[in-house]
Amino acid sequence: MNIFSKSCGFLFCMIFSYGTASAQKDSVAIKKMLDEAYGFEVSAPQKALKIYRNTYNSSIKDKYWIGAFKALLYSGLVHNDRGNYDSAIYYFQKSKPFAVKASNQRGIGQVYVNSANSYQFKGDYETATKYYLKGIPVFEKLKDSNAVSQSYQNLTGLYANIKNYKLEEFYLKKAIQYSRSSDKEQLGLLYGDFGLFYARNDKFKEALSYFKKTEALSLQDSSKVLSFFSNRNLGEYYRLTKKSEIAIPYYEKALGLTVALNDAFQKSDLLYTLSGLYLNEKDYKKAFFYGQESLNLAKNINAREVVYRSQRRLSVILNALHQPQKAFTLLEQSYTLRDTVFDENHIKQISLMQTQFETEKKDKAIANQRAQLKKNEVELIKRKTTIACAIATAIALALLSLGIWLFFRQSQKLKNKEILALQQQQEITKLEALIDGEEKERRRIAQELHDGINGDLSAIKFRILGIDESNLSADDKENLTTTVEMIDQSCAQVRNISHNLMPASIIDFGLVETVQQYCSKISQSHPLELDFQYFGNPATLPKKSETVIYRIIQELINNIIKHSRATTALVQMNFHENELFITVEDNGVGFDVKNARNGLGLKNIESRIQLLKAGLEIDSSNKGTSFQINIDLNSIQK
Length: 638
Prior knowledge:
By secondary structure, this protein is an alpha+beta fold. It is built from 24 helices and seven strands. This is histidine kinase.
């Protein structure tokens, strides 16, 4: 009984193993009935459900809780395979009390994860996340690495659907960390998931590498599951690289394999994708056929997200077929469904649950450590008490000596800390004074350039313009015009130098706008293609701190222009909660970081970063250089 995800690959069902230890052993009759039902799941699902029903009734009669649990769990999986997700959830939830009665923790974990799978297929991502984050700790406690890996892999599909690629990558790495190298099918599916992740992020070379790994494993393992995903993934690769004519055969081969795999959800999603590929080829007849098939099947299995996407796709096709009224009706229906599937509050709730899950894991680990420390402390007290009965006086003297020694040692530590703090404060004060002096000198020079030299140049220009040209020759007039143009250029250069020395826009517009203007000017006046990006809501900082940050960025860009031989560069500012992350990178020739730290330019940058109490990471190679600066905004005095 296998379930497939449209976004990542494979959603693993948690199936109870007969070899699992439990409080009760399977009776021969019940085991025989379960085996018989399993044999009919694909060919005659209704017959399988009937046998499972009889198995459940017999188990209840004999108070055989494991048998009742398995019959209900397997019934849910049959409904899940058929796309009857509400029925599947009903049976999963109904099976849980019997797993509890049988004291079977593995069964409880299976209920949570299988319920999460059904909710994910329904498009109820918030509830799905809740159940995944309930099931995973159960398997972690049981040290069932394979089940943990499969559960994390299922969770990556959910985060891919809501386009949270950061968490998708995080859980993919978790899944492969727990996976067993001997399980070629699961490993192949994980490789496929990594390939899809890279493809969605436009890293097609890496994506193709992982897809080829899946293909190789599918040939070794003769697995229809891997064969299906190998074809589907390669089709997706060629679709994303705009090669529809190559993608279509792969998708059609994958579509043929869905019959053997008995997966309605995956079939509806493949039909949707084929509709889009034929739309790209302007074969509207086939595009409409596959789109309508996808919509009908998705409605039958209540796959709301596929219904939403199919309605949107058919709206575009009908519009191309000059049926605007039908197109508009489908578009309206899709907007109504979209609010249900992709509600922003639901997505926020999913992120919150994930954060709570990670926090609870950390709190639990801390609690376990404290409990162990407490246990060790109790044992230590017992040993000390036993010894104290024989040598009480010696212990008292030892404790007194130890107390005096600790007191003086602690006093010395505090004094050393005070001295270190004072030295650090003195160093910061020196840096502040040095940078303040430098900024004052910059302002003075900028003012003199603006009011002095610029004013003199303007006066010279007006004197020249006042010359009577009537008595001048043609060459003299041309020289006069050239002289005026040179004066204008000199004035512009003086203004640029003055602005770089002390940009007024920091006071008027703030840090982000000033950096953006600076990057724009650099791009216009130099062959370097400089891109500026910022994310988040810019925080309000003291102007002195904003000036220091601006000088750091300015110095880094100047170094790129002077030394890197780069053609492109990026300045990125990311305001997140109480931190500011700054990235400055280029595609230049790089430099030796260790030797460069002795240079004046890098020392100036590090001094300013030290003043901000910020962190700096430098990564440089012959393919480029990256500076990563992390500023704790709480440490900047407001």
